[in-house]
Amino acid sequence: MTPHAWSLLFILTVAIAVLIVLINSRLRIHPFVALIVVSVGTGLAAGEPVGKLAGSIEDGAGGTLGDVGVTLALGAMLGRLLSDSGATDALAHAIVDRSAGRRLPWLVAGAAFLIGVPMFFEVGLIVLLPLIFSVARRLETRGGTQGSPYVLLGVPAIAALSTLHGMLPPHPGPLTAMTGLHADLGLTLLVGVVCALPTIVLAGPVYARWIAPRLPDVRPDPALVAQFTGAGERVEATEGEQRHPSDGPGAHPTPSAAPRPQVPIGLAVAAVLIPVVLMLLRTLAETTLDESSGPRAWLTFAGEPLIAMLAGFLFALGVMAVRGSNSGEQTRRSLTGSLQSVAPILLIIGGGGAFNQVLKDSGIGAAIATAAEGARLNLIVLGWLIALLLSLTTGSATVGIVSATGILAPLVGNGSTLEASLLVVAIGSGSLGLNYVNHAGFWLVKESFGMDLTQAAKTQTAVQTMVSVLGLGMALLLSVFA
Known about the structure:
single chain
């Protein structure tokens, strides 16, 4: 490597250190602002012409939001529609209500898997809390359960929701990594599912059986349990009623009543599965049909993440309009509230895209590629480690993913390979590990289940770290076939 390449790598190291300091300083600078500031400083230090630097930042932010932002917004609105209809809660209850006690952790994991496809970790957990609390209270009353029934049922939900959040599009992290690495959509979905299933089993029901007897005193606040488990009650994220998890320690969701689901469960499941099925059909068409085929062109178009998510959203909106009881104005306000909850994530993704573009345009990306080739580093392990460290130190899984993606993108080359899809899973898995007090999800779990810091570390931190390590292990195992 040339001295100039070494200097660029030094600039990158300093940039990452500055980013961590800005986010964790007493000022607690928002990650979006920190990313933009670091992007400007990195570009100037690396010698990118000042006339081009602003354009790099704008192109990077705009391009990333164009690829990911609209899809993410539609996913948030789809999740809100399903939550408002009561269908997600009814679906979860239908899965577990008639089940034997030993099967309940497995079925809660299954319910979380289905509900977690279109929903963020925090939103999915809030939707599932009425189910977890009501079933756990029944187990508690019946007796015979070793340890805390709330831990027994909560851990599988945490494992499933966090695994989906880190490994599978259309969640923002995997979708951002997939776009930045130009990974094949269908292959990434397939690899993500293969890696996710054993991860959920081991970090969810299996770990729950082991840890629940060791945390017998975990029980949520009785008033909160009563609010969540009253007859016909569920949690609804209505505008002005619910504190978002990012509001900090002590944030509690506020329940509101909904006597019965407004739409049939089958239609709700269809709305969740439509985007996934369309994306899989796209991959099937691209691998089996001729390039000049008309059906291939239409299926490829329909399977674009943006179009697929739009189709699921419009289906759910149509069902709500026909079968739901909410007025058009109520639905509009609810959808507006769902966009407010994802606005910070969208900004961070845009800031990460700006940082990534500056790395590319300033020549730092090429220097990283040269260094990695000389050192013969395993890209899957490197991507996982970078995402893990940045997520740990910044408190943002999104920052970890977008930064790791930008750093490693020059090393991938032709992204439509198994290695690129495995790298998406590894980066997403890395962003989940060591989830502790500087992550919003940690506080949501701690406060909702009435845990102290040690108990929360043994559940939320331990589960997400297990998911992170198991995801890396599965990616490395599958890399044998790359």
